[in-house]
Specification:
about 170 residues, Aminopeptidase, 6-stranded mixed beta sheet, 3-stranded mixed beta sheet, 9 strands, about 25% helix, about 30% strand, binds coenzyme A
Length: about 170
């Protein structure tokens, strides 16, 4: 069985290793995702950080980070970005990634978040309700916009519009 729980102090090295391994063979990866999570944590921007633990081995097999994003020219309190999301290659395709995404969205709803963006494959993220939203544009050139998606998490009429920027922690290289 896989347990999803909040990250604890003793998890950091193991969860960074899970992230490194998850992205190791991914072509589109910068291979800096574990540094991004560490930089978010250092800068106090890790709004949600959950680990997936294999209850038999007690090992961490997955991790998800969520951090605030900004949208040019408007109030962005309550808008977050999901990622990096990582599951150890040996444990992929067993539902753990989905459990992590669902738990992260639940955590955001309990924080009264307005919504969450994600950059990734629509085939994976559409199932949770993430949709490409033309009014929200990713502020990174060269990435097909359909890979940038948004989910509305509250019932308010607030509809974020504009260019979305992740924090500078996403530039971390070590
Ligand atoms: C993406 C990732 C977190 C999914 O974790 P997982 O535990 O394998 O996911 P689940 O088992 O919950 O879901 C598997 C489903 O997602 C699909 N899926 C998984 N990764 C996918 C991807 N990169 N692109 C498209 N579909 C994907 C599978 O085909 C499967 O679909 P099905 O349910 O229709 O069979 C994992 O593959 C991973 O860590 N990959 C490397 C890092 C990465 O790409 N992170 C996300 C970047 S935004």
């Amino acid at each position: 069985m896989v347990i999803i729980r909040r990250e604890e102090g003793g998890d950091l090295d193991e969860s960074a290793q899970v992230t490194e391994e998850a992205f190791r063979s991914m072509k589109q990866s910068s291979h800096t995702e574990q540094f991004i999570t560490n930089a978010l944590r250092r800068n106090g921007l890790l709004s949600v950080s959950l680990v997936a633990v294999d209850s038999e081995s007690n090992k961490i097999i997955g991790h998800v980070a969520v951090s605030p994003v900004t949208v040019e020219g408007q109030e962005t309190k309550g808008l977050f970005g999901l990622g990096p999301l990582s599951v150890l290659p040996s444990h992929q395709r067993c539902g753990t990634g989905s459990q992590l995404v669902n738990a992260a969205l639940e955590a955001l709803r309990s924080m009264s978040a307005i919504g969450c963006v994600v950059l990734g494959n629509p085939k994976f993220y559409n199932r949770f309700g993430f949709q490409h939203t033309p009014s929200l544009v990713l502020g990174i050139p060269g990435i097909p916009q359909e890979y940038f998606m948004f989910i509305h998490l509250d019932s308010s009429a607030v509809k974020p519009e504009g260019t979305v920027h992740y924090s500078s922690a996403f530039d971390a290289t070590q």
